[in-house]
Every structure is written in structure tokens, then in C-alpha cells.
Structure to design on (151 residues):
């Protein structure tokens, strides 16, 4: 049971990292494309694109890795278990997202104002914010007991 729990944490973190890597690449391209814009515009659009790429990729990966978990042996969807886990994952990601959004936007704005290349400002801000995000998500997942109680 304990090994299954650790495996689930590893899979969750793998999905987060893959989604962040995709978002880092696309965000850096968008930031560089918008490098002639004001820092606040560049930061805002880059963070918005970052969300779209990250959540699209993460949602797909999370669904792919967990699609069998929510079906009973009869083949019916276990809606109670799904709702319970969705609430836990949304709570965990939501708290981390607040930390991520504030730090990501502020750091990119800061680095752009220091006259870093736009793509580099985006990458550095993304990496620092991602580290903070991963810490908060993992603590939140433990607090909400996402992978406890047979889930």
C-alpha cells in the first residue's frame, strides 16, 4: 500500500514536470515574440499562454494515467470517488497556482526590467516559480490526503 502511494506521487510529479516543460518552451517563444511590448504586457500574455499549455497537457496526462482508477468492476463510473479526488487535486493545485501565478508574473516582469532577453526572463521566472509550485503541490497533496484512504 505504501509503495502504491509513492508511485502515485511519482506519477503526479512526472505529469507536472512534463506539463511544465511544454509550458516553458511555448512561454519562452511567446515571450520572445512579444519582446517589443511593455514588460507588463509581455508578462501577462506569457503567463496566460503558460496556463493554457500547462493545464491542457496536465489534464491529458492526469486523465491518461488515472482513467481506469474511477471505474468499478462492473464498468460503471465511480462518481463519488471521482468527485472526492477531483476536489482534492483542485484544492492542491489551486493553492499552488496562487503562489505560482504571483511569483511567475512578478519574476518575469522583474527580469524584463533588468533588460534580460525576453525568452531568458521567461525561462528563469518559469523555473523558479515551478520549484515553488512543486513544493506547494506536494505539501498540499499530503495535507488533502489525495493518495490515502484507498484512493
Amino acid at each position: 500500500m505504501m509503495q502504491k502511494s509513492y508511485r502515485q506521487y511519482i506519477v503526479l510529479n512526472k505529469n507536472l514536470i512534463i506539463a511544465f516543460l511544454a509550458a516553458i518552451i511555448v512561454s519562452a517563444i511567446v515571450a520572445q515574440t512579444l519582446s517589443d511590448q511593455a514588460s507588463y504586457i509581455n508578462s501577462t500574455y506569457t503567463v496566460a499562454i503558460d496556463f493554457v499549455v500547462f493545464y491542457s497537457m496536465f489534464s491529458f496526462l492526469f486523465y491518461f494515467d488515472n482513467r481506469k482508477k474511477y471505474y468499478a468492476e462492473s464498468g460503471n463510473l465511480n462518481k463519488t470517488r471521482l468527485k472526492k479526488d477531483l476536489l482534492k487535486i483542485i484544492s492542491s493545485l489551486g493553492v499552488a497556482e496562487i503562489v505560482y501565478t504571483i511569483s511567475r508574473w512578478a519574476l518575469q516582469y522583474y527580469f524584463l526590467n533588468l533588460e534580460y532577453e525576453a525568452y531568458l526572463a521567461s525561462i528563469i521566472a518559469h523555473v523558479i516559480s515551478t520549484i515553488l509550485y512543486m513544493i506547494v503541490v506536494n505539501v498540499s497533496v499530503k495535507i488533502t490526503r489525495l493518495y490515502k484512504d484507498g484512493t
